[in-house]
Specification:
The complex is a heterodimer. By secondary structure, chain A is α+β, with helices and mostly antiparallel strands. Chain A has five domains: 3-90, Uridine Diphospho-n-acetylenolpyruvylglucosamine Reductase, domain 2 (2-Layer Sandwich); 97-214, Uridine Diphospho-n-acetylenolpyruvylglucosamine Reductase, domain 3, CATH 3.30.465; 218-326, Alpha-Beta Plaits (2-Layer Sandwich); 332-407, 2-Layer Sandwich (Alpha-Beta Plaits); 423-481, no CATH class. Chain A has helices at residues 3-15, 24-29, 50-62, 115-121, 141-147, 154-157, 191-195, 229-241, 254-264, 284-299, 312-323, 325-328, 348-361, 390-407, 426-429, 432-445, 474-481, and strands at 20-21, 41-45, 67-70, 86-90, 97-101, 106-109, 127-128, 164-170, 176-180, 204-211, 213-214, 218-226, 248-253, 274-282, 303-308, 335-338, 341-342, 365-371, 376-377, 379-383. The longest helix of chain A is centred in the C-terminal third of the chain and has 18 residues, at 390-407. The two termini of chain A are 33 Å apart. By secondary structure, chain B is α+β, with helices and mostly antiparallel strands. Chain B has three domains: 2-171, Uridine Diphospho-n-acetylenolpyruvylglucosamine Reductase, domain 3 (2-Layer Sandwich); 175-238, Alpha-Beta Plaits; 246-311, Alpha-Beta Plaits, CATH 3.30.70. Chain B is 27% helix and 26% strand. In chain B, strands 14-11-13-12-16-17-15-18 form an eight-stranded antiparallel sheet. Chain B has a five-stranded antiparallel sheet with strand order 4-5-9-7-8. The longest helix of chain B has 15 residues, at 217-231. Chain B starts with a strand and ends in a 15-residue tail after the last helix. Classes of the chains: A alpha+beta, B alpha+beta. At the A-B interface, β9, α7, α8, α10 and α16 of A face β8, α5, β10, α7 and α10 of B.
Chain lengths: 488, 349
């Protein structure tokens, strides 16, 4: 009996037959996440409790299988794509809200809970969970933790790591540990800060203690349109320079506005070169003052019209336009590749113009929607995979966009993660010693190397003596990592 | 004890490489304002970081400042003020940026500003053997790679010497006010917390509650009115910031950190304290590190918290550290020779 068969038998006994899948359809379905890379799953398991997760980890150790934690599978960088017939641990059955404690401004939840469902459960408590990735209807808290997810409202409130107090974590040796604390500080190094954003490579989170934020008493949402992207970006800079940090500051270009409008009917101006969605929140008097300051900044940069949401419904509609952007682009072409990189805010226009030029050269349709306040770009390349040679052009454009952002002083990813898709770009921003130190951090949690291997760090990045060369051989490294028959 | 005062990163690397080779134990010092935090440690050498004090990059439009770690907080404050901004941390002007990050003190404004750890976005760290390790990115947001800087923040100089950082800064408030009520206690603090929207700090003391308000002038007025409704007669002081642990005069100050609702059980038998409502931090003044400290720590442990001393003797306290093997492996990887302030950190690390 093979290791996989034995692991299946043991886990079926421990968790029940329903909790373990190994039929060809399941293996195919779980062989990929929302990224462009397909891998191969050996076994798919749905634990219902921390004990079940421990059983998975023990079975993987006993039968020398790799482990891949997975939430809703909406990750865009391939962090949940299993490599080498791995055991995929899917947390989507662990969806309970364990407790909500407004007096301590925290809640304990299981990792499979949808982000939006936590928000709904908090209604009428006076508190909210701030991180709001656009995928929030279907993405899980565990997945949000793994990617250190952002969202429009992270401009003022910070990304997921600022909203996670503690995590219960199963390590690769089967021990259960807690990183962080229900209180504001914990004893020891800030392991919590490392686990958040570690893309499932250091352990499997079985419960998250999240920080609750008081709901702001007043909210104002504005939609502005501009004749040029330069004016739109200049308005973003002027708002920040005026000492105002809005709750959200989102920019969309004409291509994405047209797609969204045909889909969401939110009343977005389709003839504008760019629109800006701005939200301010806080105390009524402050919100008034900030709204006026923002309007002044916009008028100084030739804003066309400013539409202010008059009701909660209208606000929801304006946000629907923004948050459904990635659903709406299906109208442009059947396939898309969504980028994620961050540049210094002052380089936004320069990089945006560069992105247009790259895609024009490669004849790829590009639309842009991004967190302008954070300098976080999301160029969206649309294409039809049946067109010969198109994938090569998409990949070539993607690499050029990454290099453009890095050359502008930016980062490889603002919120989607590194996973498989960007790991070979890591040497663009980190030295061998940087990567070796990161490998040490990873192996301090998982000396076995079994936890979601081949993600985040490029081949060659090893803790060891810091002398091991980290990378350079991108194409070879990734072709070794990915099994035959894989499409990218 | 020897003192080395490097003025550049290469000199820091050289000093730590030599110390590692010679097995000489090192304490990394900045402004010496937070040296009491941590367990007693014996070292052979001090590495004074004050010479690394340059501003590397600061453009107010980026809302980031990149500076060398030896820069004084007061100097950074002046630079940022020219750009209409601040780095909202709770450290004195004499402290250094690196020392402040390595000791991660809580600001009294933590309720609104969040913890210091969320403001550090990029770091250059010279680890035990003199290697330089950079992590994070010079952007307000980045999820590229493992955040080594998160581990170094609050590590009390036991993983490496911080030589350069990029920190998130924010606009200076347009108006700033401290309001003092005449009734003290945690219950009074709780009343204010429930009644006043978005204050930057509510510091409860046994004698009164102090509230820090900041933002647009009209916002501050609206908040003041809410305080008056909840607490009656108040004292209003415009243009001032709120005091933190420095307002306690006792020779020993403990920084208690517990879930906010547990403050009552923890502070019940204490008489000299400043508690951050809604945060769960309380600074407690004690006259000696004996039985009273031990008793306080027992209550804090029962509440699931920690109680390190931040002024005077007393160390961090004897609290079990979860994932201790992970901690040991980290320490061994970053400080293979075991020379960086051995024993100063939690669990004898």
């Amino acid at each position: 009996m093979s290791d996989l068969d034995e692991a299946r038998r043991e886990l079926q006994e421990a968790l029940g037959a329903d909790a373990v899948l190994s039929d060809p359809l399941a293996l195919r379905l779980y062989a990929r996440d929302a990224s462009m890379v397909e891998g191969s799953a050996g076994l798919v398991v749905f634990p219902g409790s921390t004990d079940d997760v421990v059983a998975c980890v023990r079975a993987a150790a006993a039968h020398d299988l790799n482990l891949v934690p997975r939430g809703s599978g909406t990750g865009l960088a391939g962090a949940s794509t299993p490599i080498g017939d791995a055991l995929v641990v899917v947390t989507s059955k662990m969806t309970r809200i364990l407790e909500i404690r407004p007096e301590d401004r925290l809640a304990w939840v299981e990792p499979g809970l949808f982000n939006l469902d936590l928000g709904l459960a908090l209604r009428r408590t006076g508190f909210t969970y701030m991180p709001d990735p656009s995928s929030q209807q279907v993405s899980s808290i565990g997945g949000n933790v793994a990617t250190n997810a952002g969202g429009p409202h992270c401009l003022a409130y910070g990304v997921t790591s600022a909203h996670v107090l503690a995590l219960d974590l199963v390590l690769s040796d089967g021990t259960v540990t807690r990183v962080g604390s229900e209180g504001p500080e914990a004893a020891g190094y800030d392991l919590r800060g490392v686990v958040v954003g570690s893309e499932g490579t250091v352990g499997i989170v079985t419960a998250a203690c999240v920080r609750l934020t008081p709901e702001p008493p007043a909210i104002r949402t504005m939609l502005m349109d501009f004749d040029t992207v330069e004016d739109c970006a200049a308005t973003v800079s002027a708002i920040i320079a005026g000492g105002v940090v809005p709750a959200a500051l989102e920019m969309m270009d004409q291509g994405i506005v047209r797609a969204v409008e045909a889909f969401a009917h939110a009343g977005y101006p389709t003839d504008a070169a760019a629109v800006l969605l701005v939200e301010v929140d806080g105390i009524e008097a402050g919100v008034d003052a900030e709204t006026r300051a923002i309007e002044e900044a916009a008028h100084a940069h030739s804003v066309g019209s400013i539409r202010e949401a008059e009701s909660p419904d209208e606000r929801a509609l304006l946000w629907k336009g923004r948050k459904s952007a990635f659903g709406a682009i299906a109208q442009i072409a059947p396939h898309y590749h969504l980028h994620d990189c961050v540049v210094p805010r002052t380089k936004l226009v320069e990089v945006l113009i560069g992105v247009y030029a790259i895609c024009r050269r490669e004849n790829i349709t590009v639309t842009n929607v991004f967190h302008a306040g954070d300098g976080n770009l999301h160029p969206l390349l649309s294409f039809d995979r049946s067109e010969p040679g198109v994938l090569e052009r998409v990949l070539r454009s993607s690499e050029e966009i990454v290099r453009l952002c890095v050359d502008a002083g930016g980062s490889l990813s603002g919120e989607h993660g590194i996973g498989l898709e960007k790991r070979d770009f890591m040497p663009l921003v980190f030295t061998e010693d940087d990567l070796a130190a990161q490998a040490c951090v990873r192996s301090a949690f998982d000396p076995s190397g079994r936890m979601n291997p081949q993600k985040v760090l490029p081949d060659g990045a090893r803790c060891g003596d810091f002398a091991v060369a980290a990378a350079g051989t991108n194409a070879e490294a990734i072709s070794e990592a990915i099994p035959e028959g894989t499409w990218i | 004890m020897d003192l080395i005062e490097p003025s550049s990163t290469p000199q820091v690397r050289e000093a730590l490489r030599e110390a590692s080779q010679g097995g000489r134990r090192v304490s990394i010092v900045g402004g010496r304002t937070h040296l009491d935090k941590g367990n007693a440690t014996e070292v052979d050498l001090e590495l004074g970081m004050g010479g690394l004090d340059r501003v590397i990059a600061y453009d107010p439009a980026e809302m980031l400042a990149v500076v060398e770690a030896g820069m004084r907080i007061g100097d950074l404050r002046r630079v940022l003020a020219e750009g209409g901004q601040e780095w909202p941390v709770g450290a004195s002007d004499h402290a250094t940026v690196g020392g402040t990050i390595a000791t991660a003190p809580s600001s009294p404004r933590r309720l609104r500003m969040g913890p210091l750890r969320d403001t550090v976005v990029e770091m250059e760290l010279v680890i035990g053997e003199g290697r330089i390790v950079r992590s994070g990115a010079r952007t307000v947001k980045s999820v590229a790679g493992y955040d080594v800087h998160r581990l170094a923040t609050g590590s009390l100089g036991t993983l490496g010497a911080i030589v350069q950082v990029a920190v998130k800064v924010r606009p200076l408030p347009k108006a700033r006010r401290v309001v003092r009520t005449s009734e003290g206690g945690l219950l009074a603090g709780r009343t204010i917390l429930d009644a006043v929207p978005l204050p930057s700090a509510i510091v409860a003391t046994p004698q009164r509650v102090e509230i820090a308000l900041e933002g647009w002038p009209q916002e501050v007025e609206e908040q003041t009115a809410a305080i008056r409704t909840a607490a009656g007669d108040v004292e209003v002081i415009d243009g001032e910031g709120i005091e933190g642990a420095e307002a306690i005069v006792a020779s020993i100050v403990v920084e208690v950190a517990v879930p906010p609702s547990k403050l009552e059980a923890v502070l019940d038998e204490e008489s000299d304290w400043r508690a951050l409502m809604g945060v769960g931090i309380a600074w407690v003044g004690l006259s000696d590190p004996g039985e009273r400290l031990a008793a306080l720590r027992v209550r804090v442990a029962e509440a699931g918290g920690i109680a390190p001393v931040i002024r005077g003797p007393g160390g961090l306290g004897d609290v079990p550290v979860p994932a201790i093997e992970t901690h040991r492996r980290l320490k061994a990887a970053f400080d293979p020779a075991g020379i960086l302030a051995p024993g100063r950190f939690w669990a004898g690390l």
